[in-house]
């Protein structure tokens, strides 16, 4: 199999070097960028399979880099940032990132997430057999083979993780899924610090579905248990 290439964009050289060391041990090729402009140039000039981005970078910040990447690629993007509030995490995911880790971080956890995102991305890229049922509820239509979603006829842009969460919940209406179950199903990894990750993705998903302002929510929170699709 062809070696995969990871972009690491961080203006702190020590952090970029540490990530590069662990990624290379895992068998990945690495391209490093010291600012946002270099990161955009790298993904334009090279075939990159996944990007790890800091947010606070010179020239272009991480949000701007994500917007540039999303214009032509659905590659997995992981934010690795010192910004730790839930609002920061939500902002990162809304911009189009697939995951968000805070500094200081465990390099082995980062590698585990890189592996999981790439594994799922490769699976998504494989041809799929047609015939999976289209799911409809409350103005939302989910087309699993195309991995697209419309809301009252208008296509809405979901990240791969948001789509996977929505499709899982909508496939089993009324069934309550714990955050642990959702994380293990969607991320394909052991349950680590994931309750907050799932919560943030659910929050951004609701906003895109305009579910945060609906009285009868499509995605229902069952306090102390998890989430269900109310379709």
TrEMBL record:
One of its GO terms (biological process) is regulation of DNA-templated transcription. Its main location: cytoplasm. It is found in: Cytoplasm. Residues 132-231 bind DNA. Keywords: DNA-binding, Phosphoprotein, Transcription, Transcription regulation, Two-component regulatory system. Pfam families: Response_reg (PF00072), Trans_reg_C (PF00486). The modification 4-aspartylphosphate is found at residue 54. Residues 5-118 form the Response regulatory domain. The keyword Transcription regulation applies. InterPro entries: OmpR/PhoB-type_DNA-bd, Sig_transdc_resp-reg_receiver, WalR-like. Residues 132-231 form the OmpR/PhoB-type domain. Signal peptide: none annotated. The keyword Repeat does not apply. GO terms for molecular function: phosphorelay response regulator activity; transcription cis-regulatory region binding. One of its GO terms (cellular component) is cytosol. This is Transcriptional regulatory protein WalR. The lineage of its organism: Bacteria, Bacillati, Bacillota, Bacilli, Bacillales.
């Amino acid at each position: 199999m062809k070696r995969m290439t990871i972009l690491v964009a961080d203006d702190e050289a020590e952090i970029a070097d540490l990530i590069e060391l662990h990624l290379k041990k895992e068998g990945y090729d690495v391209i490093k960028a010291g600012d946002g402009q270099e990161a955009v140039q790298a993904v334009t000039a090279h075939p990159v399979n996944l990007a790890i981005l800091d947010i606070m970078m010179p020239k272009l910040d991480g949000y701007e880099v994500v917007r540039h990447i999303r214009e032509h690629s659905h590659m997995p993007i992981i934010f690795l940032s010192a910004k730790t509030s839930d609002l920061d995490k939500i902002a990162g995911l809304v911009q189009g990132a697939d995951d968000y880790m805070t500094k200081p971080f465990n390099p082995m956890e980062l590698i585990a997430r890189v592996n999981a995102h790439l594994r799922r991305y490769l699976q998504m890229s494989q041809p799929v057999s047609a015939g999976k049922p289209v799911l409809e509820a409350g103005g939302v239509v989910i087309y699993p083979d195309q991995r697209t979603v419309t809301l009252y006829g208008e296509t809405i842009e979901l990240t791969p993780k948001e789509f996977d969460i929505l499709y899982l919940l909508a496939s089993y209406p009324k069934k309550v899924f714990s955050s642990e179950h959702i994380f293990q199903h969607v991320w394909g990894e052991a349950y680590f610090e994931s309750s907050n990750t799932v919560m943030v993705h659910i929050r951004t998903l609701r906003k895109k579905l305009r579910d945060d302002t609906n009285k009868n929510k499509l995605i229902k929170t069952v306090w102390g248990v998890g989430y269900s699709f109310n379709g």
